[in-house]
Amino acid sequence: MTPEVHRLVPHVTDGTADADTVTWARAMQAAFLGPRMDAGDLARAAAAYAGQRLRGVWETADPAPVATLRSWDARMTVPGGELAVDAISSIGVRSTHRRRGLLRAVLVDDLAEAVRAGTPVAALTSTQGSLYERFGFGLATWTRSVSLETRAARFRAPDPTGRLRTLDVATLPSAAAPVQDRARRRHPGSMDRDAGSWTALLTGETGWTGMVPDRHRHAVLWSDATGRPGGYAVYRVARGWAETGAAEVAVLDLQATTPESYRELWRHLASLDLVGTVSWSEASVDEPLPWLLHDPRPLALGASRAMLWLRILDVPAALAARRYPVIDRVVLRVHDPAGHAEGTWALDTADPVAPAASPTRDEPDVALDVPALGSLYLGGVDPRVLARAGRLEERTPGAAGRLARLFAAPSVPWNGIRF
Ligand SMILES: CC(C)(COP(=O)(O)OP(=O)(O)OC[C@H]1O[C@@H](n2cnc3c(N)ncnc32)[C@H](O)[C@@H]1OP(=O)(O)O)[C@@H](O)C(=O)NCCC(=O)NCCS
C-alpha cells in the first residue's frame, strides 16, 4: 500500500517555529544524524522553513514523522534568463523505516504538486550518487575545491582597483543580496538565497551546527570606482594562525558581477595577513583564478564533484525558458516512466528571443531518457558525450552535434549553494 503523505505549513512567530514544525525538524535531523538540540534551539532552527512546504509520512499515535521532505519555490538561472524551480531538500527516513518506499512516497508526492502548480523543473543536491535518477533527475552542475597558497600568489594585474569594505555579518544581507542577485545571473544553475540561507551563511547558526554560532566568519564587499557594489566574499578562519603562523581561511561564498570584482576579491583574500592558505570547497569547475596569477602552481584544484540534479517536469516550458546560441529545429523523443516529460517534442529556435517547444508527430532526431534531458538542459554536458555513453540515441546522423551547438551555455553551469 502506498504510504499516505501529509503537508505541514510552518508557522513562525518572532523567529520561533510552531510545535508540529519542531517535531518534524527533529525527525529530519535524526535521519541525517544531526546533533540533538533542545526544543528552543530546534524552534529557532526550524524558523528557516517559514514559507516552505514540509511533507511527511506519519504513523498512528506517533507525533513525529517517519519520512520528511521540504521544498520551496526558487529562481534558477538558465542560459539567457531564469526559471521557477521546485527546490527540494531534507529528504530523510527514520533509520528503522528504510527501504519500504517512504522516500519514493514523499518525493513522488512533491513532484506531483510541482506539476499541478505549473513549476517546470525540480532541483536538488544529493548526498548519494545515483539515488535520484530513478525519479527522473539528471546531474546538471559540478563543483570543485580550489586551494591557494597565498604567500606564493602573484597577480598579473599589479595594482588593486576599486574599494573594499569589511561588513558586519549582521548587516551583510542588505548589502550583499542585490549583488548576489546580479552575480548569480552569470552562471546557469545558480539560485537565489532566501532569508534562512543568508542566516546560515552569515552566522553559521543552523540545525546542522546545533544552532551554535560560528564567531569566525568575516565578510568583505568590493565596489568599483563609482561606488557601485560589484562583489562580496564571506569566509571563515578554519584554523587559526597561532600554531603555524599561517591561518587557513575557508571561503563560504564569493559572488562577483564583473571580472574586476572577482579579481579584487581574490587579491584581497590572497593578501590577508597571518594567513597561509585560502580554500573554497564549492567553487566552479572553471574558476578564472589560475589565469589571474603569474604562476598557477600555488593553486591546487580538486576533482570535480556532483552538485545540482535537475528533473524536467514540463518540457515545453523548460525549453522555452532558456535561450539558444544558434538557429535550428531539433526533434527530441523523451522517455519518462512517470509521464511528466514523456513525448516527442520539437525545439525550434528560429526566433532567438522566443524559442518554442511543442509536441510533434515528426520523426525524432534524438531519443533520450528524462534524466539525460536534465543533464543537457543547462549546457553542462556535451550531448555527443552522452551519445558515446549510450545515454542519448542519435536517430539522425549528426544530431548530437547539432544539439551540442544548440544547448551550449554562455558560461559553465555552477551552483555554489548546496541545499
Ligand atoms: C536515502 C533515504 C532517504 C532512502 O529512503 P528509503 O525510504 O529507504 O528509500 P525507498 O525505500 O523509498 O527507496 C526508493 C528507491 O531508492 C533505492 N535506494 C534507497 N536508498 C538508497 C541508497 N542509499 N542508495 C541507492 N539506492 C537507494 C531503493 O532501493 C529504491 O529502489 P527501487 O526504486 O529500485 O525500488 C534514507 O536511507 C535516509 O534517510 N538516509 C539518510 C539521509 C539521506 O541521506 N537522505 C538523502 C539526502 S539527498
Automatic annotation (TrEMBL):
Gene3D superfamilies found in the cross-reference section: 3.40.630.30, SCP2 sterol-binding domain
List the SUPFAM superfamilies: Acyl-CoA N-acyltransferases (Nat), SCP-like
Q: Name one GO biological process term.
A: aminoglycoside antibiotic catabolic process
| Catalytic residue list | Y132, F419
List residues binding acetyl-CoA: I91, G92, V93, R99, R100, G101, L102, L103, R104
Q: Does the keyword GTP-binding apply?
A: no
The residues covered by the Enhanced intracellular survival protein domain are: 315-414
Q: Return the annotated region ranges for Disordered.
A: 176-196
Q: A Pfam family this protein belongs to?
A: SCP2_2
The UniProt record lists the keyword Zinc-finger: no
Keyword terms of this UniProt record: Acyltransferase, Transferase
Q: Where is the Eis-like acetyltransferase domain?
A: 189-312
Q: Name one GO molecular function term.
A: aminoglycoside N-acetyltransferase activity
Subunit structure and binding partners:
Homohexamer; trimer of dimers.
Q: Which family does it belong to?
A: Belongs to the acetyltransferase Eis family.
Q: Please identify the protein, giving its name as recorded.
A: Putative acetyltransferase
Q: Which source organism does the UniProt entry give?
A: Actinomycetospora cinnamomea
